[in-house]
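Tutorial handout. Part one gives the primary structure; part two gives the three-dimensional structure as tokens.
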Amino acid sequence: MKVTLALLALGALTACSADTPTAPPPSAEALAMAGQASAASDRISLCHRSGTGGVIIEVSPAAVAAHLRQGDYLTRLAVSHTRGKPDDDTHFHRIGDALAAARAGRIARGEFRSAACRITIAVGPGVFHGTGVPTGKPFFEDYPLMVDVPDITLRGALVMGLNGGRATGKNLAPLATSLALQPEADGFAAPIIVANAHPSGPAGHGLTVEGFAFESGNGGGFAMLSMRVRRLVIQGNRFEAGFGVTLDLRASRALLARNKMSGTRGCDMCLSGPGVYQVTGNRLVGGLAGHEGIIVGPVADLGVPAGVEPFVLPAFAAVSADIGNNEVRDYRLRTVSAAIRLIGGGPSDVSGSTQVTLHDNLLVNNMFGVTLDAGFPTAGTKLKGDIDLTLGHNDIRRSCQTDLFMTFSRHATGLGLGEDPYLLNSTYRLTLGGDERFSDAWFDNPPGLGNTLIVNGREIGHRTRRFFDGVTCPGTGEPVFPLVAAQTVATDR
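Part two.
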């Protein structure tokens, strides 16, 4: 499955749709509130609906009520903790309340999967604390913030600094907006934001999340989950340490741009299909907690929060990703940590296909630079999964073990550390693009399984080549885990 990145980016930024909206008349209270909230402003942003679509216009405060009566709607909502700010139909003290108002309008107008115009929820500076258990506190968020209606933008005050087009983590604005998760007493950590498309209902297609600092409270969990959504954009955010997984995106199409992540316990970006992903301008730092920077696999079969329907596993799932101009460093916590991990196989009897273009990235000081493996193969299942990887203009250096490693089993088994089953009748196809010499790569492709390894157009024989050392980095004598000195790290099995 190939989708051009130009189309992906264009779709992610589209604000209007061709769906015919249906609008109930606004209540007298809504009209009064809109007039009250808008009185101090020079111009008010509205979606002017005509025919099958809509266009964003700006009108005077005096004209707002008339436009609302004819079916137009407000396209900008504000959230603030500042004392003295109004709490009405356009100004809110909690992000969840603003989302609820936007959702109610979408549902009332029949904007279930696309919308006439985008609604932006601008969140002011400050720390927005929340938890997965409702507290009833007036300024406390009920996480997760669930987005299951289309074309919503959540925008915070953080402005991401860049260096060479990559996020630095530095805020160029005077203040930032933080979404801070407070884990429950039992240790359960809710996700902060969930983008969900109901299989037979409304969908959070077109969600944009930008300008926030995400704080885990060191409770694990994940910052964001997406399920079945299209045109998702996550850009210009800073994700602090302590999440179990930072971005868990499943069966989605998404643009991930100019985000800074550090100290995630699992993977910073877990990207699973069926889906299409563009990853650009991000800076990922493993440090004392990093396992993998980016994982791309055909499908995930994991639990979901309340309100999100599980994904029904297909017979075949494909995922593609363009990963370019990112910095991924210091993923060396465990034996098979990697900057980039590509998974070919799917769970159960799912046949998988993973296509990735990896270009213009800096991958430095990781246990492995790039790994290709079968994921979590299970005996007695189909055991079928293909990977197609194209490299170009990457700078991969100071990998502890090797820059490139591939196995048709789970990564640990390919290193001689496990006994997982191997894929059957599967193909890995690599184009190295001058980035790496195949003579330096490690691979594990035993005979008798029907698997094929093709590198730069040439089929490689059925054999295994590896020089794994669990104590020191081969050829350097450097300790395997210099970042976690005096800490016992169990071999990943």
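Part three, for discussion. The two ends are 32 Å apart (CA to CA). The first helix runs from residue 5 to 13.
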